[in-house]
Amino acid sequence: MRRKRNFTLISAASAFVLSLAFAVNTLFYASASPKSAREAEKTPPSAVSSEEVEGQPSIEISALSPKKICWGQGRNYDSLNRPHDAVTSQEKYGELGGFFVDLACSDASEKSKKIFLTFDEGYENGHTAEILDTLKEKNVKAVFFITGDYAKREGDLVQRMIEEGQVVGNHTWRHYSMPEKPLATCREEIGLLHDYVKENFGYDMNVLRPPKGEFSEQTLALAKNMGYRTCLWSFAYKDWDTNAPGDRAQSLRNLTERLHPGAIYLLHAVSPTNAAILGDFIDAARAQGYAFVTP
Fold it and tell me: Are 84 and 18 found together in one domain?
């Protein structure tokens, strides 16, 4: 009986050792094999994941505030029609890589009349091609901030943006509110999309728009350390509500009455109204002496 019990124990121990060896072997090959796109989304790699870009001094992030700032340009304006909040934020956060308004455009002279035209591309609503048509016709360059999902689903449009000289910007991989996430996650969010666009389109992005316009001093510095300028805005209006596209004439007035030197315009490409009035806005801005530039 004792001999039989010993044999049973030995058999059980052998089975356990074999099972353990099989599990280790499986884990080794799984980790060594290429990850699927779905797995990569869960644990995104990053070619720009370090906190320091070669040749660029790194900002010490730990000394900065993690407090979330929800950006909005405000309703008070200076003598140049610039939002006060954009001007003061540029002065406060410019060294951390924040870009709210171009303070180099400091008067009403022709050289200061510059506009940065930007579009957020969280998803495609059928209007981006029309917007690109207008930009090409008017010889205007703009920035299109894309997410990871957009990059994967709308590759033809992204390729067209690049081929036509438009700027493609980083709107993060999963559109998280960055100051609500650990810095390691923020680094992944920027890095994974950077890598994906580089690998699939041969294009290096260097401007970032934080999802929802939410940032902190720490996320600004993190992005700058990764080689990015964080582009907010000095003009935006309620153009993102597809259930209320807005009157074209009123929307055009909204855009033109807030023109100011060094303006950063945020428009959403999901809006049929924006697509319809874009050409008229470009003409109206140029008639007032403004030129369209990119960061």
Answer: no
CATH number of the domain where residue 89 is located? 3.20.20.370
| The one-letter amino acid at 185 | T
Let me know whether 164 and 75 are in one domain: yes
Whether 22 and 141 share a structural domain: no
**DSSP letter, residue 77:** B
Q: Show the domain range for 203.
A: 40-293
User: What Rg do the C-alpha atoms of the chain give, in angstroms?
Assistant: 25
pTM: 0.82
The pLDDT tens digits along the chain (295 residues) read: 444 444 444 444 444 433 444 343 333 333 333 333 333 344 443 434 334 555 567 899 999 999 999 999 999 999 999 999 999 999 999 999 999 999 999 998 999 999 999 999 999 999 999 999 999 999 999 999 999 999 999 999 999 999 999 999 999 999 999 999 999 999 999 999 999 999 999 999 999 999 999 999 999 999 999 999 999 999 999 898 887 777 899 999 999 999 999 999 999 999 999 999 999 999 999 999 999 999 9
3-state secondary structure of 116: strand
Alpha carbons 271 and 235: distance in angstroms, whole number? 16
State the Cα–Cα distance between residues 16 and 282, nearest whole angstrom.
Answer: 72
Task: State the catalytic residues.
Answer: 120, 268
Gap between the Cα atoms of 223 and 232, Å rounded: 13
245 and 154 part of one domain: yes
